[in-house]
Specification:
Helices cover 45% and strands 15% of the residues. The chain starts with a helix and ends with a helix. It has nine helices and six strands, in the order H-E-H-E-E-H-E-H-E-E-H-H-H-H-H. Helix 5 (141-154) crosses helix 8 (189-201). It folds into two domains: 5-139, no CATH class; 143-210. Strands 1, 2, 3, 4, 5 and 6 form a six-stranded mixed sheet that branches. By secondary structure, it is α/β, with parallel strands linked by helices. It is globular.
Length: 213
């Protein structure tokens, strides 16, 4: 469990140092969820992992998102090494080794690239270069609201994402922008119904009506 932005920063510095010492190729990672919320000071809460959407390639003044369901190069080995060193979880409650998407650094949200990220997200990222081997791009407030609202519709951990949204306290314009993004995608009738319920819970009934939800 990571309890603060500082603790997340420290473990990423440790990962960067291992990568550099091993001569690993440079890697960029796009990070969302609780880790990004904590590091950027958007809100403070404990988080069990660092959610990576994809690998990022920085080409001149542009960034390109590269989809993968596996962490590149030697990262999986370093993730396990750090877990052992810091006493982070390596097994589930039944004593079985954690799957890759359950470890403290994982690509659990990689399917977001298939769904489609919010337009212009590249311009709103916060870049932190830990050393020549590791650069992390953290998703900011506006895009976190988009992704948290989507997670409320699809995740089995809906309560966590709803609570995060309450704490972020999106403005009416921020919520409207997130809803506009969602309804422009191919969401199911069930998800549209759930989106309406979430908007009602946030007292944004008029936004639901605007979008015919």
């Amino acid at each position: 469990m990571f309890t603060s932005g500082d603790s997340i920063d420290q473990v990423l510095k440790r990962l960067a140092a291992l990568m550099e010492d091993a001569g690993s190729p440079s890697v960029g990672l796009l990070v969302c969820g609780g880790a990004a919320l904590n590091v950027l000071g958007i809100l403070k809460r404990g988080t069990r992992d660092i959610d990576v959407i994809c690998v990022v390639e920085d080409v001149g003044s542009e960034v390109h998102f590269i989809k993968s369901d596996k962490l590149p190069w030697d990262l999986p080995r370093f993730v396990d090494d750090i877990a052992r060193d810091l006493g982070l979880a390596m097994k589930d409650r039944k004593g079985n080794p954690l799957q890759d998407d359950q470890k403290w650094l994982n690509l659990g949200p990689h399917r977001l690239l298939d769904f489609g990220l919010p337009e212009g997200i590249e311009e709103r990222l916060t870049k932190r270069q830990y050393n020549s081997a590791l650069t992390v791009y953290f998703i900011g407030r506006k895009d976190q609201i988009h992704l948290k609202l989507y997670a409320c519709l699809i995740s089995h951990r809906e309560a966590v994402h709803t609570q995060d949204l309450y704490k972020i306290d999106p403005t009416e314009d921020e919520m409207r922008a997130a809803v506009s993004w969602l309804v422009s995608r191919s969401i199911t009738g069930r998800h549209r119904k759930k989106l309406r319920e979430v908007l009602w819970d946030f007292n944004y009934v008029h936004i639901a009506e605007e979008f015919g939800l």
